[in-house]
Design brief:
Largest sheet: none
Helix content: 55-70%
Radius of gyration: 15 Å
Oligomer: single chain
Distance between the termini: 39 Å
Structural class: mainly alpha
Number of helices: 5
Shape: elongated
C-alpha cells in the first residue's frame, strides 16, 4: 500500500558509503584513543583517503586488528 513495502537496502552500497565515511573513526577510539582517531579522520579528509587507508599507513594497530574493528563497524559484528 505504501511505497516502503518491498524496498530493501543495497548492502554493498551501504558498506561502500560507510567505508568512505569519517564516522568509522569512532570505532577506533577504544583501541587507539580519541586524539589518534581524530588525527586519522583529519588526515583522511585532507588527503581524500579512507579511514582504513590512513590508519594502515600510520600503523596505529596491526592490520588484522584494524580490519576487524573497521569491518565490524562497516559490515556489522559477526557472531563468533
Amino acid at each position: 500500500e505504501k511505497c516502503v513495502r518491498g524496498i530493501t537496502a543495497n548492502s554493498n552500497r551501504c558498506a561502500a558509503n560507510l567505508e568512505q565515511s569519517l564516522a568509522v573513526c569512532t570505532a577506533l577510539v577504544p583501541a587507539i584513543g580519541y586524539d589518534n582517531a581524530a588525527t586519522i579522520a583529519k588526515t583522511a579528509y585532507a588527503q581524500e583517503k579512507t579511514v582504513r587507508e590512513v590508519a594502515l599507513e600510520m600503523k596505529v594497530l596491526p592490520e588484522d586488528e584494524l580490519n576487524k574493528i573497521l569491518d565490524d563497524m562497516v559490515y556489522g559484528k559477526k557472531d563468533e
